[in-house]
Design goal:
flat; mainly alpha; 17 helices; two-stranded antiparallel sheet; 474 residues; 4 strands
């Protein structure tokens, strides 16, 4: 990317004018072109106005999209090949790459710290049983009391209440899965076999999870050949940092390497210190400390940052949703436990417990929908002019958890209403059931119109996907 300046502007504008003409002829907008290039509309606008030059790969992509048959590429090459046009030389470009890698390391460390904070915060789920220790016995005791007189109603009621108490744990479990993906899927998912067993074998990869923050080697082309030889010699000199002078350790490491890389017998590491140079090479491979050029390192860093950004944004939102679910479930359990204690103190019949517990958790279900959808609504409220909230629900990955929660809360309400219906039929008191049903329907209507802009038809699929494939499925 080259910025225009001084007398270089006119040439950039010539390219921009031609680009604008091709875009117009193709009948697409600058916004559509930006989407195809994976960049911002403002950057494409700078291309068209001659304030900025795209990268050559972007020019090739644009040339294909607009059907320029190579005209844009040829004009771009003619422009950047002219001497004195402000295009940086190789030394300047490499300096820019080094500066970028320094900034990228800072950004990557920020992502990592954010993930570590979430990893520590996810441990709060351990405190949930402690916080509810004085509440759960009362709720469970109420369900057991109902069981003594109405077994069918107790089963349905218990199933609905169980959803409220399990959802926070499930949310935190998915967060831990997200964080595992963050720390171990920053690049390739395995390691190449040491060598094919047969000449006709295709290159293959064995699964060997690697930490996302890989080791780092001196980029190729940054040192003179003699200096590279010096560094290689120092690897052997300092090899005891990773390879202790212990034959038992060497044998264990060799066995591990042979299993991971499926090494054929003819290529096994020599025993003893004679094989330390080969072991050092495998240490670099296992830690993903691969020799790369400066350009390759910069490209990999760009992709890693994009990967981490996508993972962290989903995980942070999911963490907020799980915390809010924990609060809502805790409050519901607290109220239910207190209500059960009052019923028992007044020596009211067990049938009353059905209505008390049902009322509490029928209110909880739509409130939980409001809680789990709150983070996205808060983001939208803080982003004026950012479009409609419903547009975020096109990204199923972003809203999969809350979609699953909506589905489970609906099942919880249905199960609790079934318990109320069973109790009403036994007591021949259908109007009471209709009151519960009508109140629950009104609460759900409010939640689905005010808090939930998604599609109910997609919620079962979201739940099934999370249940089957986990949090990290793209």
């Amino acid at each position: 990317m080259v910025e225009s300046g001084g007398e270089k502007g006119p040439d950039y504008r010539i390219f921009g004018d031609q680009l604008k003409e091709w875009i117009r002829n193709k009948g697409i907008t600058q916004t559509q072109l930006a989407v195809e290039l994976g960049t911002s509309g403002a950057r494409v606008s700078n291309f068209v106005r001659g304030k900025q030059l795209p990268r050559r790969g972007e020019v090739q992509r644009v040339d294909e999209l607009v059907g320029a048959d190579g005209d844009l590429v040829r004009q771009y090459d003619a422009l950047v090949d002219k001497p004195g046009e402000g295009v940086p030389d190789a030394a300047e470009a490499r300096g820019a790459l080094r500066d970028f890698l320094q900034r990228a390391e800072v950004r990557l460390s920020t992502f990592t710290r954010s993930a570590c904070y979430l990893l520590g915060g996810a441990g709060l789920v351990v405190l949930l049983p402690v916080l509810l220790n004085s509440v759960l016995p009362g709720v469970v005791g109420g369900v057991v009391a109902v069981w003594s007189v109405q077994g069918d109603a107790a089963v349905l009621l218990g199933a609905g209440i169980a959803v409220a108490l399990v959802l926070p744990f499930w949310g935190f479990l998915l967060i831990l899965e997200d964080l595992t993906a963050f720390f171990f899927t920053g690049h390739s998912f395995g390691a190449e076999h040491a060598v094919p067993h047969h000449e006709d074998d295709e290159p293959s990869v064995v699964f060997n999870p690697r930490f996302a923050l890989t080791g780092l080697r001196v980029p190729e082309g940054e040192l003179t050949p003699r200096m590279y030889d010096v560094v290689a010699g120092l690897h052997t000199e300092h090899g005891r940092v990773v390879i202790p002078d212990d034959d038992r350790w060497r044998r264990r490491f060799d066995e591990r390497v042979h299993r991971v890389f499926d090494t054929p017998p003819a290529r096994r590491i020599p025993a003893g210190a004679a094989g330390d140079d080969q072991r050092l090479g495998y240490v670099f491979r296992l830690s993903a400390s691969l020799p790369r050029t400066l350009e390759s390192e910069a490209a990999k860093m760009e992709l890693s940052l994009a990967k981490h950004n996508l993972t962290v944004r989903v995980t942070v939102l999911r963490y907020l949703k799980a915390v809010l679910l924990t609060v809502s479930a805790g409050v519901a359990a607290l109220v239910a436990g207190g209500a059960v204690a009052v019923v028992e103190e007044l020596a009211l019949p067990p049938e009353v417990l059905v209505h008390v517990l049902a009322a509490v958790f029928l209110v909880w279900a739509p409130v939980a929908v409001g809680a789990v959808t709150a983070p996205l609504r808060w983001v939208h409220r803080a982003s004026p002019g950012g479009g409609h909230l419903a547009e975020a629900y096109r990204d199923s990955r972003l809203v999969r958890f809350e979609s699953a929660v909506v589905f489970l809360c609906l099942l919880s309400s249905a199960s609790i209403l079934a318990a109320v219906f069973a109790a009403a039929m036994r007591a021949d008191d259908l109007p009471l059931f209709l009151v519960f049903f009508g109140g629950s329907a009104c609460a759900w209507a409010f939640a689905l119109t005010r808090w939930w802009p998604g599609r109910l038809a997609r919620t079962p699929a979201a739940f099934a996907t999370l249940l089957k494939d986990g949090a990290s499925r793209q």
